[in-house]
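Quick note —
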Amino acid sequence: MMISKEKVYFKTFGCRTNVFDTQVMMNNLKDFEITQLEKDADVVVINSCTVTNSADSTARNYINSLKKLPKSPRVIFTGCGVWTKGENLFETKKIDALFGHSEKENINELLKNETRFFKAGDLEHIDETIIDKMIGKSRAFVKIQEGCDFRCSYCIIPFVRGNSRSYNEHKILQQITTLAINGFGEFILTGINVGSYGKEQGVVNKNDKLVQLLKKISLIRGVRRVRLGSVEPVQITDEFKEILDEPWMGKHLHIALQHTNKDMLKIMHRRNKVKSDLELFELLASKGYALGTDFIVGHPGETDEIWRDAMQNIDKFPLTHIHSFTYSPREGTPSAKMSPQINGNIAKERLRELENKIQEKNLNFRKQHQPLEVLIESKKGDIYTGYDQFFNTVEVQSKADLVGDWINVENYEILEKKNVSKF
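Predicted structure written out below.
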């Protein structure tokens, strides 16, 4: 008689690095069955984010919602939240077990332990797993780096991910080769501070090892497009600028500014400067790149005068995408003790102003009506959705099965937040 395996459902919050970490766990799960349906789960593994208070509360709300599931699954908690909220969740019995980043490759044995356990692990680990598939993905996320050596005043992440450490180059190339053989053509290099790859203290000294890695990746058979996670302005070297015209580079870069006022950058303990940031963005835009950034609104000390200056500067930046959010104090960070705090309603108004500006910039960028190379990722009815080389959403109506396909789109309609076409 065949014994049925327990079914495990993975819920991933947060960044692309967490997406890869979940894939590592899935690939190490040998004695369980992975399900894409919450209602069928005997075990739910939550890969948490803790970058903001909102991220913490979202995870808590999700944990509470699991009580409604028919099987009353065991709840296992992992991810960055282990180091901030994990102990409280465990002690109050909101979760059944907890393990940290360094333990995720041991997930199979951990889940076989049906008692309650708390294994936070360490902040020095580097994964050894080579994954052969990205479950539920058309694009492949590949982690090349872990942790961060920067100490921005508002950020909790170095304290939950550790200092920067780079993955072995041979291991990365082996990982990408394996996924390319299995049909993946687009690769997104992820990490907590991707631009720190191969660098001491996050800044290049002699040769840019990230550029050397990118060139080697481009030579792997099957690699069609390479994207990078977030990089810092100070990490864009002259050597990096030399590969901007390469056909395998995705025409979108996400470069973390966090703010566009010089005084605010000092308060945040940032390494970038507004003037050099603008020069860099203008150069990248001249090469045809769509450009995204992170921006924190309402950080302590953000006066009306500082905000007005920041928005005047934003008008000058050739931005097309933004990951913006209102400041959220993280216990243990210098910013949490700073004053004056900014009223929440004022911060929300500023956030809307910023996002409206970038949405308009994105629309104007798409009005150039360039030919698009789209990798289709998902389907709903006869509408297929994917991203083009500029990391803009494209919806395509088609009777053919296009999921996982690359298509060239020249005739399309430009809507407020996306492009649409028929194929």
